Automatic annotation (TrEMBL):
Protein name: YghB_1 protein
Annotated source species: Weissella cibaria
A single cellular component GO annotation: plasma membrane
InterPro entries membership: DedA-like
Secretion signal span: none
Family listed: Belongs to the DedA family.
Keyword Chloroplast: no
Keywords: Cell membrane, Membrane, Transmembrane, Transmembrane helix
Length: 206
C-alpha cells in the first residue's frame, strides 16, 4: 500500500518515479518523439504537452543515471517539428477556415509575422495555429521555409538545452517538481518578453 510519505516524496522529486521507466531509452525515445510529432502535425492533438515534454526530456538527460542523450532527442525532434509545421502550412494553403480563435490568431500573425514564425511555438494554444494561418494568408513560401527552419532550431534546441542546464543544477535535481513548474511558466514568459521588447522598440522609433 502506498503511504502518504511516498506520495509526497514523488511530488517533491518525481525522478524517483520516472527513473525506472527511463532505464530503457529505446522504448522511451519513440514516445517522446511521438508526443512532439503529433502536437506539431495535428491541431486535434494541441492538448499534448510537446514543449513541456522537450524541457522535461532535456532535464532528464542531465541526470547521469538516466540513459537519455540530447543527440538522440534532437535526431527525432528536429525533423518532426519542421515537417509538422510544413504539413500544416500546406493544409492552410488548401483551405479557408474561420472561427473566433482563428480570427485572433490571424490578427496576431498579421501584426507579428516574423516573431510568430520564429518564436510562436512558445505561445500556448495559439502557436498551434500559426502555420495554418500562414498558409491561409498566402505567406511567402520561401520565407516560410527559411523561418520554419530557424524557428524549429530555436524551439528544439532552446527547450532541450534550457531543460538540460536547469536539470544539471543540484537544487533542481533534488527538487524536480520546482523545475517542472518552471518548465510550464518560463517558455511563455520568454516569448511575451520578446514581444514586449519588440513593441517597445517600434514605439520608441516613432
Amino acid at each position: 500500500m502506498i503511504e502518504l510519505t511516498d506520495v509526497l516524496a514523488i511530488i517533491r522529486n518525481p525522478v524517483l518515479f520516472i527513473k525506472p521507466i527511463m532505464m530503457n531509452p529505446w522504448l522511451v525515445y519513440p514516445v517522446l518523439w511521438a508526443i512532439v510529432g503529433f502536437e506539431s502535425y495535428f491541431v486535434l492533438f494541441a492538448w499534448l504537452p510537446a514543449e513541456t515534454t522537450m524541457f522535461l526530456a532535456g532535464s532528464l538527460a542531465a541526470h547521469q543515471e538516466i540513459p537519455i542523450q540530447l543527440w538522440w532527442l534532437w535526431l527525432g525532434y528536429l525533423p518532426v517539428v519542421y515537417l509538422g509545421w510544413r504539413f500544416k502550412f500546406r493544409r492552410g494553403l488548401a483551405r479557408n477556415t474561420r472561427n473566433s480563435r482563428m480570427d485572433d490568431t490571424v490578427d496576431f500573425f498579421n501584426q507579428h509575422a516574423k516573431l510568430a514564425m520564429l518564436f510562436g511555438r512558445y505561445i500556448p494554444v495559439l502557436g498551434i495555429f500559426i502555420p495554418l494561418i500562414a498558409g491561409e494568408s498566402r505567406y511567402d513560401q520561401a520565407i516560410f521555409q527559411r523561418e520554419n527552419i530557424i524557428g524549429t532550431l530555436i524551439w528544439v534546441f532552446g527547450s532541450t538545452l534550457i531543460g538540460y542546464y536547469l536539470g544539471s543544477i543540484p537544487f533542481f535535481q533534488q527538487h524536480f517538481s520546482v523545475l517542472i513548474a518552471g518548465i510550464i511558466v518560463v517558455p511563455a514568459g520568454i516569448y511575451y518578453a520578446v514581444t514586449y521588447l519588440n513593441s517597445l522598440f517600434h514605439h520608441l522609433r516613432r
